[in-house]
Each structure stands twice: as C-alpha cells, then as structure tokens.
Amino acid sequence: MKKFSYKIDFQYFLSEDALLQCALLLISLLLGMALRTVVQRYDKTHQNAKNPLKILAIVPFIVPLVSTVLIAVFSTVLEQSGIAPKILSPAQQLVFGWIAVISIRRITESQAATWFSGLIILPVTLMHVVGIWGYLVKYLNSLSFAVGDSTVTLYRFLSTLVALVALLWLAKSLTHSFETRLKKTKTVRASTRALIIKITQIFSYIVIFLFTLDSVGVDLSVLAVFGGALGVGLGFGLQKVASNFISGIILLFEKSIEPEDLIELSDGTTGTVKHTGARYTLLETIDGREILVPNEDFIVQRVTNWTYSNKIARVEIAVGVAYDSDFNKVKEILLTAAQQHPLCSKKTKPNAFLRTFGDSAANFVLYFWIDDVTNGRLEPQSDVMLAIWQRFQEEGIKIPVPPREYQLRLANMDTVDIPPNPKKPLG
C-alpha cells in the first residue's frame, strides 16, 4: 500500500506576486459586500412601493458573482503582465463552489441540504485547488474490499454513497416541486394528482436504486435473488405493509376516496380526508383529531363517502305529539320550520310523514335536505328542532311523556319496620 504524502510550497505565499493577488482577492470581496449593502438599503427604501423590485432573491449571490467577475478581470491583467495567477485562479474555483452551495440553499430551502452540500463541495473544491485531490483519489483507489465476486475500491464506495444521498435529495426536491406545481392545476382531480405524484416517486427511487447498484459494480442479475427474498419477506413479515401500499394504489386508481371527502367508517368515525399516503390515509375528525387510517380498511370494510358524487345530504327529525293534537297543523309546522332554515335545500322540498301510532303519542318524521354536508348536519338539525318546539309551545301542541308505573313488592316479610322521623319528637 502506497503512503499518502503531499507537500505545499509555503514559500510562494510570502512572495510579492502572492501578496498582490491576495490584496486583489480581498478587494473583490469588499466590493461585492459593498454592492450587496447598497442593494439591501435600496430595497428597504422601496419596499412600500406599488411595484417593488424583486431583488431579495439575488442578494445572496451578489458577493460571489461580483468577486467572480473581478477575479477574472484581475487574472487576465496579471497574465498579460507576465504574472501567473496561482492564487486568483484557485480562488475563483472556490467562489464557484460558493455559488453552488447558495443555489442549493435557494432551491431546496433546507438547512440540512445546505450544510451537506457545503461539507462536500467546498472541501473537494479546496483539495482540487491546492492539488491534493489527485493524490487522495489515488490513495483511496488503493484501498479495496470484496463484495461477492466484485472488488470495490474505497473511493468508488464513498463517491457512490455521496451520489446516492445527493440523488435521493434531488429526487425528493424535484417531486416536491412537481407536486407543488401540480396542485396549482385546477383541471386535474386530486386523486389523479396523488396518483401521478406517487408513480413519479416510485419511478425516481427505482432509477436511483439501479444506478447505485451499477455504480458500485454489483451485477444487476442478483436482483432476481433479491426479488425472491423480498417476496418471502412480504409473505411473512411485510404482508400488512404491502397490503396497505397496494390498497392505496387501488384507491387512487378508483378515485373512490379523494382529499376533502367526508368519510364515515364502519365504527362510526367521521372526518375529512386530508392526505392519502402509501400506507395510510389521514382523516381529520370534526373535533380536530387527526387519525391515520390504514388504506386496507377502505378496501375490506364498509365505508360511507358522503361526498362521493355530490355533497347533498338528508337530515331526519322524529317527533311524537299527543293524540288530541291537530295532525295537519303538526305537519304544517314541521314543513315550515324546515323551509325557513337558510341551509335547507331549495332544490328538494322537505317532507313530513305520520309514521306510527304509538302507545302514548302519534309519531311523525321530518325529512329535509342540505346542499353541502361538509358544513355539518347537527347545526341545521338543532335549529329546526328548536323552531318546531317554539311553534308547538305557541300552538299548544304537547309532546307526551310515556307513563311509568312503579310497584314495590315486599316478599317474605310479615311486618315492615318504618324508621322514626328524626324531625318529629318521640312520644
């Protein structure tokens, strides 16, 4: 194994040419910072204007861009003067790396991605500038390990690992950007958008996985063995995960469950669909709870979708009145109370029926419709019931209470001892 060694000529940095180039580099940075300060002040003074300039987006790029231009100019002048820009040229490459890091920060808006890219791009650029990178690559290529019948060098492994992380981040960023743009398209249904996004994500990750295996040098024919092992794993331990994943794909293709649908599960849980994922569907209930429902439950269980084809829903109110009441008047009160409510549908008229003659009351039922069930059914039902009660009070219509008969049976007791009243004196 070769030893890694490298020497840097520190004597050159004390020469007049090096000091001149350092001064020019410092001037480039200072001029860039000065221009950035001017732009920021100009933006503050014009931020209340009707059509302000959108210059905040370019503020982080001002210093490196100005420095790049000035360094290029100074390098050309030095070359024409017979001085080799041994410091300015490497510094320009570092500035390019700086611009790349800033671009990643602006695109992803992620602090973690910025730190990761900075820890990779800037050190690699610096090592390339000073000439260490070539020696380091040779040294890492001299270290290797076996993976089956293949031999993988340490440099290839590390470069593939960095490329994998970068590709995963890139795929996530692109799919997120694609999802954001697709959500703004009103002509595409919500379920279709979710299906397109999911297929895009799956395709991206499969391509990244195959690229990583090929980069490491793994024979892709081993995927047949891996697929068999994966099938056995799904059969034993991951069958629920696979079932929920496939159920989610089925829901997206059928378009039976979409975001903002009002869903009622078989156990009575009711809520609005907020998100359909690969494993679960996020349901937000009327009391603010967020429930993660496995996708399989929507396939194998009975589910009520209140907004599948329309948002119209029926409200039912049952009421019993005394037999001495005017039944026609009762029916009129029920219909009027429903018709006067603002949420009652004007397209479908309410109906009231005399259903049964009970033991103590004649039982009526009122049906009326609301146009948008997502606004709730309890509020219009409560309002109509209060209006009915108020009219019954005005018309003297009574809602009878069923009589209750209570009997006290004393068994196996000849006499009953009644305790004395503590408030009444004895004797």
In brief:
With 427 residues, this protein is an alpha+beta fold. The chain is built from 12 helices and 10 strands. Among the domains are: 120 residues, no CATH class; 87 residues, SH3 type barrels, CATH 2.30.30.60; 83 residues, Alpha-Beta Plaits, CATH 3.30.70.
Could you describe the 3D structure shown?
It is a single chain. The strands form three sheets. A five-stranded antiparallel sheet has the order 6-5-4-3-7. Strands 8-10-9 form a three-stranded antiparallel sheet, covered by helices on one side. A two-stranded antiparallel sheet has the order 1-2. It has helices at 16-45, 59-80, 88-108, 111-130, 132-141, 154-183, 190-216, 223-236, 239-254, 295-300, 327-339, 378-395, and strands spanning 144-147, 150-153, 262-264, 270-276, 280-285, 290-294, 304-305, 313-321, 351-357, 362-370. With 427 residues, it is of the alpha+beta class. Among the domains are: 11-130, no CATH class; 219-305, SH3 type barrels; 313-395, Alpha-Beta Plaits (2-Layer Sandwich). Helices cover 53% and strands 13% of the residues. The model is unreliable at 49-53 (pLDDT under 50).
Q: Layout of helices and strands, plus pairs?
A:
Blueprint: H1 16-45, H2 59-80, H3 88-108, H4 111-130, H5 132-141, E1 144-147, E2 150-153, H6 154-183, H7 190-216, H8 223-236, H9 239-254, E3 262-264, E4 270-276, E5 280-285, E6 290-294, H10 295-300, E7 304-305, E8 313-321, H11 327-339, E9 351-357, E10 362-370, H12 378-395
Antiparallel strand pairs: 1-2, 3-4, 3-7, 4-5, 5-6, 8-10, 9-10
